[in-house]
Amino acid sequence: MLDRERLAATLLDIARHEGVTGLQMRPVASALGVSPKVLYSHVTDKQGMLEILVETILDACMPDVRDKPWDETLRAMAGALHQAYKPFPGVLDVVLAQGCDVLQQPYTKWFHATAHAALTNAGIPQKKVYHVFVRFAVIVMGSVLYEESNARSADPSESQESLDQCFEENVEMFLKDVERMASDCAGTD
Fold it and tell me: What domain count does the chain have?
C-alpha cells in the first residue's frame, strides 16, 4: 500500500540522487514498487510530486521560531532554508520557476508570514516590509542557487566552507541593515 510518508521518502531519495529530473511518474512508481495508476491516485503529475517533495524538505528543516526575537527568527530561517536545499540539486530552481503556483503553498505562506512578522517586530514599517522581505529571500535563495552553480562548475577556488562563511556574513549584514532601517524609520515618525 502506498501512503504519503512512503511517497515522500521515495521522492527525497530520488531528488537527492538524481535531482528534479528523476521525478517522473513511471520511474517513481517503479521505485515505489507500484503501478503508475496507483501513483496517479496520490499525485496527478510532476507538480504534485514536487509539492510533496518541497513540503517534506521544509517540514524537516524549518526551525521553531515562536517567541524568538526577530533577528534570531530571521537568522534561523535563513540558515535552515540555506541548508535544506543543498542535498537536492535543482529543486529550488524548479520551485522558483513556478512563480505564482508556489506562492499558494502552505510552506511558502508560512515562510512569508513568519519573515514578515519578524521584520515588523524589528520595527520595519508595514509599507516597507515586503521590499525588505524580498532582499532577505534573494540573499537566502540566491546563495543556494549560486552554490549549486558553483558545484556544477567545480570551481576549486570556492570551498563549501568559504561559501557558507560568505552566506553567514551576508545574513549578518542584512540583519544589521534591518536594524539601521528600523532606527531610521523610527527617527522619521
Answer: 2
Q: 168 pLDDT exceeds 90?
A: yes
Q: Are residues 105 and 69 in the same domain?
A: yes
| Residue 54, domain CATH | 1.10.10.60
pLDDT for res 152: 59
158: its cell numbers: 570556492
The boundaries of the domain holding residue 38 are: 1-61
pLDDT at 186: 81
The answer to whether the CB of 78 falls within 8 A of the CB of 136 is yes
Q: pLDDT digit string (tens) for 107-127?
A: 888 889 999 999 999 999 999
- CB-based contacts of 162: which residues, under 8 Å, 6+ apart? none
State the DSSP code for 22.
Answer: G
Report the interhelical angle of 4-18 vs 46-61 (nearest 10°).
90
Rounded to whole angstroms, the Cα distance separating 115 from 140 reads 12
